[in-house]
Amino acid sequence: MDVKIRSINTLTDLRKCHEIQRATWGFTDLMVFPYTQLISVAHNGGVLLGAYVGGELVGFVYGYLGMSGSKLYHFSQRMGVLPQYQGMGIGMKLKLAQRDQMLRQGIDLIVWTYDPLLGKNATLNIEKLGGIVRHYARDIYGAVNNPLQVGLSTDRFLLEWELMSDRVRERIRSNKPRPRAEDWLKADQYRFVNFASWEGNLPRPMAQDLEMDDDVLLAQIPPDLNAIKKVDLGIARGWRESTRDIFETYFKRGYVVTGFARSSEPQMPNIYRMERITLPTTSDFSSWETGVRDE
Predict the structure, then answer these.
(1) Which three-class secondary structure state does DSSP give residue 284?
(2) Closest CA relative to residue 48, chosen from 6, 105, 4
């Protein structure tokens, strides 16, 4: 499939970004970014790039400049691909084009948020792109009225993508197979901080240990959060609350998410790898950790 990445600059395609947002996330009009905002950002240092197949817009990525102290960075606010084109590497192409544009503008850091319980996003963000996570944002967007989020708090990982780091340059050029959860489990090299009980194909979070101090630790999450939500919202909330405790605790103690392995077999968790390492940073994102509060 021939995919072309280029700027979005026609009114028809700008309006189609509305359709892509609705199709990707089930957003109501209130949650859809209007094309007027998209084009304004694109003309003022931001990014608005589209993925085209046969001349048809099938996905886009959008973001704008941010500042931490004296450090400029790019915040990638939204990337969506029409459902029938997902799983074809289009998201990777959009992110690499976004990286190229930022480097031309002299920006070497892109950050964005994603739900830590969604394995497909973690594979792209951490394993394919080489991002790292050391900040957990609790209910950062408050209540969101769309089918993918109803009933759960909007907790997010804040992912940092250091565009010129050795890690990122190695990951984006690598053709190595991505880690599989099965292989990490068989290797039995690192200890888990949490455990689950399986009832058929439905994993329920059980015990967790917040006082481990190994240099490398593993944390498991369910293989399909949305499937759990359809059956038992209470179990889905249990995963949100238990993993929130885990990541908030270990991030405060200096651990960083550096790896992810996705499961491909029944009754097999997705797995994050956390390492206790010190990484240089030129930005302070601690304000994200407080989330939003009700009046």
Answers:
(1) coil
(2) 6
Question: Of 271, 119, 294, which Cα lies nearest the Cα of 185?
Answer: 271
Name the token pair of 30: 């209130």
Alpha helices in 219-269 (DSSP H): 225-231, 233-252
User: How far apart (Å, rounded) are the C-alpha atoms in residues 194 and 242?
Assistant: 9
Map residue 252 onto helix, strand or coil: helix
Residues near 59 by beta carbon (within 8 Å), at least 6 away in sequence: 20, 50, 51, 79, 80, 81, 82, 85, 90, 91, 94
116 CB-side CA count, 13 A: 34
Q: What pLDDT is attached to residue 149?
A: 66
Instruction: Assess whether pLDDT exceeds 90 at residue 44.
Output: yes
Q: Which residue has 């097999």 as its token pair? A: 268
**47 and 76 Cβ atoms separated by less than 8 Å:** yes
Task: Please tell me the pTM assigned to this model.
Answer: 0.93
Distance in angstroms (rounded) separating the CA atoms of residues 193 and 250? 10
Which of 71-75, 176-180, 259-263, 281-285 bottoms out in mean pLDDT, i.e. has the lowest?
A: 281-285
Q: What is the torsional sign of CA 293, 272, 224, 79?
A: positive
Q: Would you mind telling me the total number of residues written for the chain in this entry? A: 295
Q: Are the beta carbons of 134 and 285 closer than 8 angstroms?
A: no
With 60 as the cut, is the pLDDT of residue 295 above it? no
Integer Cα distance of 141 and 138 in angstroms: 9
CA distances, 217 to each of 20, 40, 208, 209, 250 (Å): 38, 44, 12, 11, 10
Show the 3-state SS of 132-178.
EEEEEECCCCCCCCCCCCCCCCCCEEEEEEECCCHHHHHHHHCCCCC
Angle at 138 between CA 269 and CA 207, to 5 degrees: 40
AA identity, residue 74: H
